[in-house]
From TrEMBL, chain A:
Protein's UniProt name: Iron complex transport system ATP-binding protein
Residue ranges occupied by any ABC transporter domain in the UniProt entry: 3-228
InterPro entries named among the record's database cross-references: AAA+_ATPase (IPR003593), ABC_transporter-like_ATP-bd (IPR003439), ABC_transporter-like_CS (IPR017871), P-loop_NTPase (IPR027417)
Keyword field: ATP-binding, Nucleotide-binding, Transport
Record SMART domains: AAA (SM00382)
Superkingdom assignment: Bacteria
GO molecular function, one term: ATP hydrolysis activity
Record has Nucleotide-binding as a keyword: yes
From TrEMBL, chain B:
Transmembrane segments: 23-47, 84-105, 112-131, 137-158, 165-187, 207-226, 257-282, 294-315, 327-344
Biological process (GO), any one: siderophore-iron import into cell
CDD domains tied to this protein: TM_ABC_iron-siderophores_like
GO molecular function: transmembrane transporter activity
InterPro entries from the UniProt entry: ABC_BtuC-like, ABC_transptr_permease_BtuC
Family according to the record: Belongs to the binding-protein-dependent transport system permease family. FecCD subfamily.
Membrane-topology annotation of the record: Multi-pass membrane protein
Localization annotation: Cell membrane
Keywords: Cell membrane, Membrane, Transmembrane, Transmembrane helix, Transport
One Gene Ontology cellular component annotation held by this UniProt entry: plasma membrane
Superkingdom field: Bacteria
Protein name as it appears in the record: Iron complex transport system permease protein
Source organism of the structure: Phytomonospora endophytica
Length: 251, 347
């Protein structure tokens, strides 16, 4: 099912944002700090109710759904970072089953096992969450979201704290999955590589949206980010790739 | 060198936590009645455990007692049994309320009194006493003061954001203690020390069968409600945003937890004063033994709390006999070093 943000506004932080994530596709939200990316995501995973506008999943209004029901369709990996109690990895991942019932059925067990395998944390099952590295922890939190068996996955800068290999692994996981994905990414090259479409926010408003090649141009990067970039074609994939130079460098 | 295939194929280690959890729960469940019988027997007039068990059996089944044993029976059934039961209930309730409070303010160093409930209770009780109330009316005043303080903290914090709640609770507590100090000046001289000691350090000397049913309903009912919320409590610990994305209304849950802990703690403080450290330390000991999952913590912590408080009360009655130490003195002597050790464990 398509995910559609339909004219959502949140105060002045997000202004009349409309955006479609076609079923099974990956859309990346990019933009400078404070441009409203996270706020837009929060409307999708129900942490925030938009002042106006609606979030549609197919023809169902997510903003009107009971949270426990919408949590069966939409899972989120947020930027929240604080102490988590001393759960084991398996215990934490099992919390992803909360919207589905008491978490003790065979189906719950299977969903958790599949989620841990997909996020490559099955070998950590009995480890304590607080003893993990930042990258391992992020993958465990992703496994928790996958255990929700969502149709839609919303991720807020999921590659933070991940080393290069795990950044690539995480984005490959999203590409290989069949879920509808809306994610915020800072790294424009990762966005170009991972996303079917890229949407650019500035001051809470959508300024461009389209395929990475259509959107990520020298002009747009200069205008929105204030950075000089040269766009080249990736020698292997042919996708757009941005090269930056530091300010004051001879060109 | 890659690990040999046979080693790599070894399945994950057994869930030792679950095993030790079952063991601890069974051991405590078996130990608790024994501790109660021993505790009922101990005191200024020691009564052998077999006799104690006999009297309790007679009281429960309506059996008969020899005429020359009536005094000892009275001591066991009328005086000591409600006292030991109250200790067990309050121990269980403080442990459960501590678990709930730590989840509510998402702070492992929180205890049930952080909302100003204990200082509110002492103000309410002393005020009721000054107005000429006695007996259960003082208990009622304490309960009203406890719940009133929680309501004031809720209103003053203007919401349930964890840090604001903690800071507001601490501030209101200090204010209420000042009020308490003023009120104590107005008390007749003879009552000052006993009153202060009871409300700030607590004890089970005032126990009677009259209060047991109410406390039992509030404490056991509260633990029951917390059990129903066990998965939501786990989810809440992941953060409000994530909880929301998992379908748990963090705000509503917090409000419920706030009301529940205020009610439970208010009822307990009203009958036994503010016994410190049990509500803080017992949840941690339970988590050390069984992990952080509330389905297990909420079984183990109340059992541990009950057993611990029964022992504390025995110590309070016997260490300085014939005088009685406040229960909070014992819990502090045991709890403070434990608390410091736990804090160091957390780095």
């Amino acid at each position: 099912m398509d995910l559609r943000l339909d004219g959502i506004s949140v105060g002045a932080i997000v202004r009349d944002l409309s955006l479609r994530v076609p079923a099974g596709r990956i859309v990346g939200l990019v933009g400078p700090n404070g441009s409203g990316k996270t706020t837009a995501l929060r409307c999708v995973y129900r942490a925030l109710r938009p002042t106006t506008g609606t979030v549609w999943l197919g023809d169902a209004d997510l903003t009107a759904m009971r949270p426990r029901r919408s949590a069966r369709h939409v899972a989120a990996l947020t930027q929240e970072s604080h102490d988590i109690p001393d759960f084991t990895v398996a215990e934490l991942v099992a919390l992803g089953r909360a919207p589905h019932g008491d978490g003790r059925s065979t189906k719950d067990g299977e969903a958790c096992a599949a989620a841990m395998a997909e996020a490559d944390v099955a070998h950590l099952a009995d480890r304590h969450v607080n003893g993990l590295s930042g990258g391992e922890r992020q993958r465990v939190l992703l496994a928790r979201a996958l255990a929700q068996e969502p149709e839609v996955l919303v991720l807020d800068e999921p590659t933070n704290h991940l080393d290069l290999r795990h950044q690539i692994a995480l984005l490959s996981l999203l590409r290989n999955g069949k879920r509808t994905v809306l994610l915020v990414l800072h790294d424009l090259n990762l966005a170009a590589a991972a996303c079917d479409r890229v949407a650019v926010l500035r001051d809470g408003a959508l300024v461009a949206s389209g395929t990475p090649a259509e959107v990520l141009t020298t002009e747009l990067v200069r205008e929105v980010f204030g950075v000089e970039a040269v766009v080249v074609a990736h020698p292997v994939t042919g996708g757009p790739h941005l090269l930056y130079s530091l300010e004051g460098d001879p060109s | 060198m890659p690990p040999p295939a046979a080693l790599a194929a070894v399945p994950a280690p057994p869930r030792s936590r679950r095993g030790s959890h079952t063991l601890a729960v069974l051991a405590l469940a078996a130990l608790l009645p024994v501790a109660v019988i021993l505790a009922v027997g101990l005191g200024s007039a020691a009564i052998p455990p077999a006799d104690t068990a006999g009297y309790l059996w007679a009281a429960l089944t309506g059996g008969t007692i020899d005429a020359d044993e009536v005094t000892r029976y009275q001591i066991v059934w009328r005086i000591r049994m409600p006292r030991v039961l109250l200790a067990a209930l309050v121990g269980a309730g403080l442990a459960a309320a501590g678990v709930a409070m730590q989840a509510l303010v998402r702070n492992p160093l929180a205890d049930p009194y952080i909302l100003g409930v204990s200082s509110g209770a002492s103000v309410g009780a002393v005020a009721a006493g000054l107005l000429g109330a006695g007996g259960l009316a003082v208990t009622g005043g304490a309960f009203a003061g406890a719940v009133g303080a929680a309501v004031v903290v809720y209103l003053a914090a203007a919401g349930l954001a964890p840090l604001r709640l903690v800071l507001t609770g601490v501030a209101i507590s200090v204010g209420l203690q000042a009020v308490m100090s003023v009120l104590v000046y107005l008390l007749p001289d003879g009552e000052t020390t006993g009153t202060i000691l009871f409300w700030t350090m607590g004890g089970f000397g005032a126990a009677s069968w009259d209060v047991i049913p109410v406390v039992a309903v509030v404490v056991l009912g509260g633990i029951g409600v917390l059990h129903r919320l066990r998965r939501d409590l786990d989810v809440l610990s992941l953060g409000d945003e994530t909880a929301g994305a998992l379908g748990v209304d963090a705000r509503g849950l917090r409000l419920g937890l706030f009301a529940l802990t205020a009610l439970m703690t208010g009822a307990m403080v009203a009958v036994s004063g503010a016994i410190g450290f049990a509500g803080l330390v017992i949840p941690h000991v339970a988590r050390l033994l069984t992990g952080a999952v509330h389905a297990r913590v909420l079984v183990l912590a109340p059992l541990l709390g009950a057993a611990f408080m029964v022992l504390v009360d025995v110590a309070a009655r016997t260490l300085a006999a014939p005088r009685e130490l406040p229960a909070g003195v014992i819990t502090a002597l045991v709890g403070v070093p434990l608390f410091l050790a736990l804090m160091h464990r957390r780095r």
